[in-house]
Amino acid sequence: MTHHIPEKSFQSLRVKCLISMVGTILSFFLASTPVGATIIEGVIFSPAGPLPGSTISAYSDYQSLITDTNPIQSGLGDKTGQFRIDLPPGRYYLLARGEADGVKFFSYHGVNPITVLDTFRWLPFFMIPESPAICSPDGQGISGTISYKATPLSGGVVSVYPEHDGLFRGMGLLTNTLDEKGHFRFNLDPGSYVVVARRKKTARGIGPVMQGDLFCYTSANPIKVVSDQLCEIKMECYPRDNLLSFLDDDEANPQGRKHETRRQASLWDLQPETSQQPTSQALSTISGTVTDLEGRGLANIFVTAYPSMGLNLFQMHVLRLISPAMSRTDSAGAFNIDLAQGGRYYLVARDKVGAAPDRDELYGLYEGNQNHSVTVNAGEHRKNINLTVVPIMPASGLTQRLKE
Question: Of 256, 278, 344, 366, which residue is the least packed, with the fewest Cβ within 10 Å?
């Protein structure tokens, strides 16, 4: 027996089905995109190209990253190696993880923590192999080698921070330059530390990591130092927002046709929180040269301007303070320091920063007056501010021969 559905009933049923389908689609969309969330897309790649199956995890704080607690996970993007993650406005630590040929890769973004507002972002993640710390009874602290694309990173700057710091910018507890083999060593009290290295494209300053600068962070972070144990690490670097220099020579740019638009989205208003913000007040500047006793300009010397903070005379304890007003001399010994405001500053030149001066270190104060200070007005450029450095308590000839 055949039953005929009236035309009106059929139309009504079809409308109900369509409404149900639309509702299902909308429910899925709303569930996958939180209300008020910002879309962040990007690409995850190693030097060999996009790394399929990699994911991004977003954490509310550094401690959550360490313990992998309550992360917001990314989904797949439009192409291989690309991702998409929807984040409510806030501050996040972003970490990429992946694997290829049995090797685990990771990437800690150099601008962490990233403040997410309501603007689309395109972020590239540069994946490097995970590498644990190896500890042995050979001292106490952290040592290691730093490289970029298997080449030792000479001339870079390495800093160690307490784990609770969270930002890991500026000089930290201790800061030192890398030797020609990319090696460093810090003698440290027991505790938990984070090691970060950087190399600027230019010799001017050791400030925020900008496009093309190298950033280095190890998966071994944070590193626990215990009594009578020296932990050895190996750190690989990557260039900030410069994919082509990171890829192997025969690999194509994986960003796709919208590269320029995406590059701007990754740079626009996405700078480390410690970077200076635009101001209507003109910057003050101090520039000059660092030389030895023979008047020869010296490269890779740090010159720091410490605010006087009411001190009428320079005192040694200021060397342990963190000042963002720092520059590193170029090959001719020249330096240039930009200051957010005018005032009186103590100028110190040395080849190490972040610790008390040590034997044989190159060190010098500004000698233009008795209290070693330079006064600069708002918007003023003080030129020809020159400093001379000498080794601190150099070893005598007899001491040197005994060492040999």
Answer: 278
Average predicted confidence (pLDDT) for the chain: 78
At 119, give phi and psi (nearest 5°). Answer: -115, 135
Banded model confidence at residue 261, pLDDT cuts 50, 70, 90: very low
Query: H helices of 220-359, where?
Result: 243-246, 259-267
Residues 6+ apart with CB under 8 A from 307: 323, 325, 343, 344, 345
Residues 142-184: pLDDT tens digits?
Answer: 999 999 888 888 878 899 999 998 888 877 788 888 888 999 9
**Do residues 64 and 145 lie in contact, with contact meaning Cβ atoms separated by under 8 Å?**
no
- Say whether pTM exceeds 0.90: no
Digit-coded pLDDT (tens) for 51-68 = 888 999 999 999 999 999
Beta-bridge partners for 262? none
At the fourth CATH level, the homologous superfamily of domain 284-391 is Carboxypeptidase-like, regulatory domain (2.60.40.1120)
For the chain, the farthest-separated pair of C-alpha atoms sits apart, in whole angstroms, at: 118
> Which fold would CATH assign to domain 134-240?
Immunoglobulin-like (2.60.40)
Q: How far apart are CA 104 and CA 22, in angstroms?
A: 42
Are 47 and 246 a contacting pair, CB within 8 Å? Answer: yes
- At position 6, the amino acid (one-letter code) is P
Q: Which CATH superfamily is domain 33-130+241-275 in?
A: Carboxypeptidase-like, regulatory domain (2.60.40.1120)
The angle subtended at Cα 54 by Cα 49 and Cα 59, nearest 5°, is 130
